[in-house]
Write a structure and sequence with these properties.
The chain is of the alpha+beta class. The chain is built from 12 helices and 19 strands. The strands form 6 sheets. It has an 8-stranded antiparallel β-sheet with strand order 1-3-2-18-17-16-15-14, sandwiched between helices. A hairpin with a 2-residue loop joins β2 (46-52) and β3. α1 (25-39) runs antiparallel to α12, α2 (85-97) runs parallel beside α6 (190-202) and α2 packs across α7 (206-215). The protein starts with 8 loop residues before the first strand and ends with a helix.
Length: 392
């Protein structure tokens, strides 16, 4: 294929210094970073925003100008993958505020099949001794991992099962937990199960509940689990780079999930598509203590419960990077180890195809970045934050 051109097309909606008319320091830094991602073939076209104290400091679209890429615009739709998870958590907090469950409730009180789960040890599979509780799903401490094959594989389930309840019952029957619930941390399919739990507690389909309680109040009209044929024309193409870096292609054949209309396989961990402006509204709500356009989606107290660290000192790649984990959100507790000059207490998450966001309650700031590229790298989140915090 043709190589990405070093000189991308730049559409800048950023803010100049009022006296000089030049780009602000932070705008210049973020835009330079976005261009570098394209020039070094890390991503294709990408979009970024930095918002602080009620003002957009940077909003820039950098298009690659590669004939095989897609130019980003306000209608571009992205698969947000694991940035679905914080939305699912907010939905759970809405139900929690309505006193419809408690964090320590056994999940089997709502989904009976999950009362008969198996656990693994070094030698065998056995009946779990600990009950699986809702808080274990919220914090990725259930023992359910992500599965590369079989019934638990998300992409497999997307084409085999007809409902979340079928999928969850299959997990209970065929998938063993990696450890006793509540005793360790493992990133996994917990939010897919939470989607089914939300259906049981609310009496609505997962999407209906999200749409009524989150998407409509936040004007997130393009955030959903499916794509129409027309919407697929705006679905961002994937820039795929092999692990060894030798192969680089733009492809429409790597969606993995079907996003088919009418599907009940609505995965709370990775199933949503969204637009940049839609997800910006979600970030704005979190930054504003759960308030958006005069409507309280969740309380500030609920946000504090969401971000409170439940898993600390996780070692990744051989060292602790200063990040602890709450309800499927990271919480930066040791900024010096993060190395980006970010504030203590920022929280956020990322998605498999390199969508990233964070909320900074201290500086009243959020950052949002979207592209569609693999392999995933949390370094994009960190580098974007460094471009912001060293220049703000």
């Amino acid at each position: 294929m043709k190589r990405i051109l070093i000189l991308p097309i730049v559409l800048i909606f950023s803010f100049c210094d009022r006296q000089s008319g030049k780009l602000s320091k932070i705008s210049s830094s973020v835009i330079t970073y976005q261009k570098a991602l394209i020039a070094h073939e890390i991503t294709g076209s990408n979009i970024a925003r930095v918002y602080k104290d009620g003002e957009v400091l940077v909003h820039s679209i950098i298009n690659s100008n590669n004939e095989n890429d897609m130019a980003i615009n306000e209608n571009t739709i992205f698969p947000i993958w694991s940035m679905t998870k914080p939305i699912t958590i907010v939905a759970m907090m809405i139900l929690y505020e309505r006193n419809l469950y408690n964090f320590d409730d056994p999940v089997s009180d709502y989904i009976p099949s999950l009362g008969k789960i198996k656990c693994k040890n070094e030698d065998s599979v056995y009946n779990c001794e600990n009950k699986l509780r809702i808080v274990h799903l919220l914090t990725h401490r259930s023992g359910f991992r992500y599965y590369s094959s079989g019934p638990g594989n998300i992409t497999h389930a997307d084409t085999v099962f007809n409902s979340l309840s079928e999928y969850i019952d299959s997990l209970a029957q065929y998938q063993s937990l990696e450890f006793e619930p509540g005793t360790d941390y493992m990133y996994g399919i917990n939010q897919a199960i939470l989607g089914g739990l939300i259906e049981v507690i609310s009496g609505q389909s997962f999407y209906e509940f999200l749409n009524q309680n989150i998407f409509k109040p936040l004007n997130m009209n393009n955030t959903k689990f499916y794509l129409t044929e027309k919407e697929r024309e705006n679905f961002q193409i994937l820039f795929k780079k092999s692990v060894d870096g030798k192969e680089r292609i733009f492809s429409n054949n790597n969606d993995q999930l079907t996003y088919r209309m009418g599907s009940k396989m609505q995965f709370g961990g990775e199933g949503l598509v969204s637009t940049f402006n839609d997800y910006s509204n979600f970030c704005q709500m979190l930054l504003s203590g759960g308030l958006f356009n005069g409507q309280q989606i969740i309380s500030q107290k609920s946000i504090e419960l969401m971000i409170e660290p439940h898993t600390i000192n996780i070692v990744e790649d051989g060292y602790y990077g200063g990040v602890d984990y709450g309800f499927s959100l990271f919480n930066l507790q040791e900024p010096i180890l993060d190395g980006t000059n970010s504030s203590k207490g920022i929280y956020g998450w990322s998605g498999y195809h390199n969508t990233h966001f964070w909320i900074d309650p201290k500086k009243k700031l959020y950052g949002l970045f979207m592209t569609r590229a693999v392999p995933f790298s949390f370094e994009i989140q960190r580098q974007f934050r460094a471009a912001v915090y060293y220049n703000i």
